Amino acid sequence: MKYRTRLLFSEVQRQQQINEAYDEELAQLQFEQNKWSERERIEQTAQNKLGMTLPEPSSIISITP
Amino acid sequence: MLIIRPKQAGQDYSIRWRLLLGILLSSLTVLIGRAVYLQALDKQFLKHQGDLRHVGIMPIPAHRGIITDRHGELLAVSSPVKSLWVNPKEFLKAQVPAEKIRQLATQVGLSTDEVINRIGNDEERAFVYLKRKMNPEQADMATGLGIPGVYAEREYKRYYPTGEIAAHLVGLTNIDGKGQEGMELVYDNSLRGIDGARRAVRDGKRRIIERTEELRQPVPGKDLTLSIDARLQYIAHRELKSAVAKHRARAGSLVMLDSRTGEVLAMSNQPAFNPNSRGKVSPDVSRNRAMTDLFEPGSTMKPFAVACALELGLTQPGTVIDTNGGTMYIGRNVVKDVHSYGAMDVGKVLQKSSNVGTSKIALRVPPRKFWVFYHNYGFGQPLETGFPGEARGRLSDYHGWSAFEQATLSFGYGVSTSPLQLARAYTVIANDGVMPMVSLTRLSQGGDAHRILSTKTASTIRGMLEKVVSKEGTAFQAAVPGYRVAGKTGTVKKLGARGYTNSRYHAVFAGMAPASNPRLVMVVMIDEPSAGDYYGGVVAAPVFSRVMQEALRVLNIAPDQPDAPLIAARQDSPA
Description:
The complex is a heterodimer.
Chain A: H1 2-36, H2 39-49
Chain B: H1 14-41, H2 43-54, E1 55-60, E2 67-68, E3 74-86, H3 88-93, H4 98-108, H5 112-119, E4 128-134, H6 136-143, E5 150-159, H7 167-170, E6 172-173, E7 179-181, H8 182-186, H9 188-192, E8 196-202, E9 208-216, E10 224-225, H10 230-246, E11 251-258, E12 264-270, H11 283-286, H12 289-292, H13 302-311, E13 320-322, E14 327-330, E15 333-336, E16 343-345, H14 346-352, H15 355-362, H16 367-376, E17 394-395, H17 403-410, E18 415-416, H18 419-430, E19 434-436, E20 449-451, H19 455-468, E21 486-496, E22 499-513, E23 520-527, H20 536-539, H21 541-554, H22 565-571
Parallel strand pairs in B: 2-10
Antiparallel strand pairs in B: 1-8, 2-3, 3-4, 3-5, 6-7, 8-9, 11-12, 11-23, 13-16, 14-15, 17-18, 19-20, 21-22, 22-23
Helix pairs in contact in B: 1-2, 4-5, 4-6, 10-21, 13-15, 13-19, 14-19, 15-17
């Protein structure tokens, strides 16, 4: 009985550690995602690298239903 | 005569001997008895004492709730990190070689001397933080060096993905994860959660050798959804920052409200700070000025004064007011206009922002009624957001008012307000006379709202404010192509040590769009622009225009300007 308890307990511990490792990885990935999705970066890339600009009001056609 | 006889050998000592034996035997009995008692009868005592020395209860930190914007974008998140700590008692006893200390120092990013200093040489101490909140992998490598007495502990670190963009509103936690400022402080109780507890067995060196059971599972904190939209917040931050830099201003604030629900969609301040760097932040920088700082609203107050008179039927929109060449005497005091205009109707008074005209209109309203209107617009009234340091502004009691005071109130002096309070008051004009309660968190349904003005008065004023944003008005630069915009400028003299100064100003613009059915209300306030320009229409209005233009596009709000961009567009050759 005691032996089984110990076995199960160590299994719980192991799983918890795996869980913690996943948590850490998730946080790292969130950082990365955030870094890449920073608005300032996207704006800069769109303007400088891709040469994108906002359309002039005169070139917008609004369609009324 | 006393005869002394020497003691003779072989005398009988048996009494002494028996006494000694008796003492020894009885102490033995007591000892055996105690041992039997402890081992057989009162087992709990020894077990308890043993546990006290070897079983400890360790906290399991609870995960702090995340803070997101209204669409779930992360504004504050807790990520797992490790803190490295040292038990100096073990460390010093082990005589760690210098080479190992050097390796440890590189891992934690400190110099060898700093590490030695931090650990100290007090052999009685059992706990010293070496480095808090470090990258978990680095911490594992540091403990992996196998130096006795070096341990890692799991903690959470607060991270603010948007950096300084929403820093004033979101706020900060301290190193122990407790809310210090902003929404982190307001909602600290629900964000925090409850730490769990775990029982652990330690050996003689106080190392944890077995984690026996979880006494209490940690309860994670609740997540918090703010009312702001991260996209609009970014635009507001970017434009305000560039305007404050361009006009070399001391500070600036921008508030954008959803005019129907009263939710704050963007709230930005300059100067700003980065909440991720743990340096000392001075209150001058960390203050959420849009809520904590007061200023006199100046001309942005005029629409409210005019609205009182219209609502009470004391003036009609067509009433012609003679502005007397821009000068008006009230008792011994003078009200002056920047330019002289002569006679004009009420709309024109607002369009040209005439102090004399506004005063004449306002003085038709009895002081008590005038005060009630201002009070109902929320001046001098708390916002009830619970935000730390929230200012309620000041509106003096009408009993002490002279005619001149009432006149100055009508053009926004003698009353103080925060930018958010001013924006709230403008929702009355935007929302057909109904003022919603301001909210910093996302509302799932409409909150409380109160009717302040009739629909008719509110839409009349809105029509007049549209004329302000025109070539003839003071705020042409607030215009947004394709949309109708209504608003009012303010150029407010700051109160110096000796009365109002002629050199330091607040440049203000308050407005709404699209004017046909306003969705957004925005207030821009620039404090002490000092690069030459200081008029609200030149300094603050362009910021409004740029932020509003992008906000309307991001929120997909249809243009309401009847001008036909269609024809112009057709002439464009396809690229």
